[in-house]
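ok trying again, last paste got cut off:
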Amino acid sequence: MLDKSVRLILAIVFSIFLSGCSAFEKSLLFQKNMINENQETQKIEKRELQTDQLEALREIERKLENITLNITKLSNENTKTFEKISLKVKNLESKITSLQIASVNKEETNKKIFSQTNSTNQLGREDYQKAFELLKEGNYETAMNSFISFIEVYEESEFIDDAKYWLAETYYAQRAYDKALEEFEGIRIQFPDSGKIPETILKSGFCYVELGDLEQAKKILNLVINKYPNTSVSRLAVQKLKTINTTAQ
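nice, full thing came through this time. structure:
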């Protein structure tokens, strides 16, 4: 009888033990599944986070690219505006310089006209005056051709150095700076005693500026300042040097 009771009790205990083991295994399995689910969720969240970060980075890159393009556009527009303004300044500067030099040389030219007695020179004077009037009117190409014709016809005229000088000015006004420089420097060699020499040296310096040789331009402009102090050409040289130094900054 006792053996049956013991066996019954053992059977119950064993059954309970088995039930406990099964519950424990289920609990472990549940926990394992939970861990796996959490890990998978973390992986998904991590991928989503990486995707969001990449998208945010791409958005920043797009914005940066747009900003760079806008800066480049504004820079190009500013450069074009600056070039237009610089061109206008150069044109005005060229006209002012020509007018100033023309004013300086008016008295000298009138003296030459007054002293003319030879009939050939009288005829040359009229043709010279016509060419000079064309230059003052801004008709540079026609004035250029008129001065060329004058130089060919009136080689012995007292106005020949003046004509060569103003021919060089017509080249300068038309931005043919290499031709203008050739004519200006030719006058210095051919007519070293001409009253146009100070202006000729000055405008040679101006030509070097336009041709981009700033060092040579500075040398010539300083030569004008030192050789012809307190004159209109000296003041023009000073103004040009200021322009060069301002532009170079």
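cool. The helical segments are 2-115, 119-136, 140-153, 160-173, 177-190, 197-210, 214-227, 232-248. The chain is about 90% helix and 0% strand.
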